[in-house]
Amino acid sequence: MAFRLSLLLFILVNGLFSQENKIDWAPYHKFEIEDFKGSKTKISAEIDKVFVQSGVMLDFSFQMSNVEFMFTRNFNSKVSCTFQRDAAVIMAPDSLAAERLIALVQFDFDLSELYARKIRKELFENKKTFSDASFFQPYFDKMIAERNKISSRVYLETDFGNKAETLEKEHEVVKNELVLLSDFCKECKPPKKRNKTN
């Protein structure tokens, strides 16, 4: 049995990404302008409008036998939050504007990991022994819709990162929520008792 759901935020990209092109989410990773390797990345006074493609991807995939699937509850390792360097683009008139966009992508990366954890939690709490693989779809779709709504709101309310203080406050909320869902990091084993509280 093979099952795959994926979402590339803000961009569509075809093909597979090499390992060196991919950055797995990590709690203290800090982006540099050099990470944005999309062909249109440019910092130049000629640019009159800022532009950003986050390169952030949420991916859910697994391959296992029907028997393995039936008895698997922990799908944490199957849900990934990554940054694809070749898909990430920043266009800005100067380094200050670029740094603001980078901070916005940093927020988006953490927000996406938060929703990866929420997806992992939903799967853990709702997977039954005889669940069919398609049961994942509604949980995935629901979490992605929520993530996109928050991301869009923050992009607008921070004026694409120009309101640094507002962005910082939003980012702190996300960081705190990440801690609360620490049992659902990619490498973690959730608690044995299923907890239905939000």
Biggest sheet: strand arrangement: 1-5-6-2
* Portion in helices: 25-40%
Quaternary structure classification:
single chain
Specify the overall morphology. elongated
- Percent of residues in beta strands: 15-25%
Low-pLDDT segments: 1-17
Topology record:
Blueprint: E1 2-8, E2 22-24, E3 42-43, E4 51-53, E5 56-63, H1 66-70, E6 79-84, E7 89-92, H2 95-126, H3 136-157, H4 164-180
Parallel strand pairs: 3-7
Antiparallel strand pairs: 1-5, 2-6, 4-7, 5-6
Task: Please give a structural write-up.
The chain is built from four helices and seven strands. The chain has 198 residues and is an alpha+beta fold. The strands form two sheets. A four-stranded antiparallel sheet has the order 1-5-6-2, with helices on one face. Strands 3-7-4 form a three-stranded mixed sheet, with helices on one face. Mean pLDDT is 85; it is low at 1-17.
Give me a quick take on this structure:
The chain has 198 residues and is an alpha+beta fold. It has helices at 66-70, 95-126, 136-157, 164-180, and strands spanning 2-8, 22-24, 42-43, 51-53, 56-63, 79-84, 89-92. It has 4 helices and 7 strands.
Key traits:
3-stranded mixed β-sheet, 4-stranded antiparallel β-sheet, alpha+beta, 38% helix, 4 helices, 198 residues
